[in-house]
Amino acid sequence: MRSLIAALVLAGSTASAQQAPLYEWAVTRIIDGDTVEIEAPYLPAPLKPVLSIRVYGVDTPEKGWRGKCDREKELGAAATKFTTELVESANTIMVEIREWDKFGGRVLGDLWIDGKSLTAMLIENGYAREYYGDAKQSWCE
Fold this sequence. Notes:
By secondary structure, the protein is an alpha+beta fold.
């Protein structure tokens, strides 16, 4: 089933390996600063027609019970608010899908909000650190 979903998600890609294709799929929910949910009407039943996108190349602090200290929880809430405000005020949002993440239940990608990368905006505004799957740095220090 995972292979079928991957094929459906990546079907129709004509872009080069350096540039992933962009799609106009609506954001249905902000999960946290670096994860959003998009509409995915192409997924076959009985799967829900939504897909989680983990923003590639960044790590934002965890919010709520997942945060390891009060500071991380506060930073995580701020990162989530930043992403939410960007999405809610956007004129256009394009979804970039790169690959399945290491957990298999979501994909790695980016949102292009009014022509700007969410990955870049999170880092530039101090809400995220660069992250490519190695050991994460603590937000509590």
